[in-house]
């Protein structure tokens, strides 16, 4: 992996969504073979009951909000599913039908190959998650609705328009259905991860302009990539909550966590099951993740 100290961010760049998305897609396409090697896929092959560490963590907070406290028999749509390890895990956890949506054709090819190898039935839908409802309509039919819409870790910072994102979620859910997100905390993203202390260096509040990065490394696996340019978008926690409420969902639970399932800063320490935390009392000073559970009302009058 490249030297993190060499990575520089440029704040507030003037780039349109289509151009930013194209750059990000080129970057994520190149990540796929590195992640296929680095995600520990043999654990899924060796143990038919194996679930990803992300899904094991998420189920603890998600299942209390589901009928009978389980995914058993439910239809689930996984937004920004990448190479499908979490999607497969959700199917293994009991979901009757799983659909993965992602913008990367190479990621979905890897996901479909993994699912087929493991005997897991899943549907895969390729395209911009901000158009997820129309994409699912085209691929699976306009009457396709879900009991659960799920997204977790490393997702919404790649999206410019969270209002559009929230509208997709509402439109994909059945009445009474549940939306679940766990993601990296926007407060953590204000920190300069290269420093040896907790120094804020980047914006917390979004204004529609992305951060521009040039980085040849990726968060897991060996090797580097050539399409180094990426763009990500600051989104305050209040923005995430507000767009879901404005889309018509009701908030049922919220949590902020002290650990993270990827190595954000070099000085973070591994604390077990692939989770990382800031050292010592720093773990009590900055949240690493946030989790939200929201529900679509049974009817517009609810």
UniProtKB/TrEMBL annotation:
GO terms for molecular function: methyltransferase activity. It comes from the Bacteria. InterPro entries: Methyltransf_12, SAM-dependent_MTases_sf. Its EC number is 2.1.1.-. Residues 79-179 form the Methyltransferase type domain. It is an enzyme of class 2 (transferase). Keywords: Methyltransferase, Transferase. Transmembrane segments: none annotated. GO terms for biological process: methylation. This is Class I SAM-dependent methyltransferase. It comes from Demequina zhanjiangensis.
């Amino acid at each position: 992996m490249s030297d993190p100290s060499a990575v520089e961010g440029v704040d507030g760049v003037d780039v349109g969504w289509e151009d930013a998305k194209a750059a990000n897609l080129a970057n994520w396409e190149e990540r796929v073979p590195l992640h296929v090697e680095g995600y520990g896929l043999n654990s899924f092959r060796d143990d038919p009951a194996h679930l990803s560490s992300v899904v094991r963590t998420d189920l603890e907070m998600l299942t209390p909000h589901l009928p009978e406290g389980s995914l058993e028999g439910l239809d689930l749509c996984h937004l920004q599913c990448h190479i499908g390890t979490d999607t497969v895990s959700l199917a293994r956890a009991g979901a009757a039908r799983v659909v993965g949506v992602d913008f990367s054709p190479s990621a979905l090819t890897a996901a479909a190959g993994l699912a087929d190898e493991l005997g897991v039935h899943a549907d895969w839908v390729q395209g911009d998650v901000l158009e997820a409802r129309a994409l699912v309509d085209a691929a699976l039919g306009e009457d396709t609705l879900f009991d659960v819409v799920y997204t977790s870790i490393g997702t919404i910072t790649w999206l410019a328009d969270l209002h559009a994102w929230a509208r997709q979620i509402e439109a994909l859910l059945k009445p009474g259905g549940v939306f679940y997100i766990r993601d990296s905390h926007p407060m953590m993203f204000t920190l300069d991860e290269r420093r040896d202390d907790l120094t804020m260096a980047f914006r917390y509040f979004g204004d529609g302009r992305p951060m521009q990065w040039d980085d040849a490394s990726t968060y897991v696996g060996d090797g580097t990539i050539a399409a180094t340019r990426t763009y990500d978008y600051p989104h305050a926690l209040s923005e995430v909550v507000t767009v879901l409420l404005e889309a018509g969902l009701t908030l049922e639970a919220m949590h902020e966590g002290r650990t993270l399932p990827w190595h954000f800063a070099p000085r973070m320490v591994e604390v077990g099951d692939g989770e990382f935390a800031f050292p010592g009392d720093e773990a009590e000073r900055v949240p690493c993740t946030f989790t939200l559970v929201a529900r679509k009302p049974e009817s517009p009058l609810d």
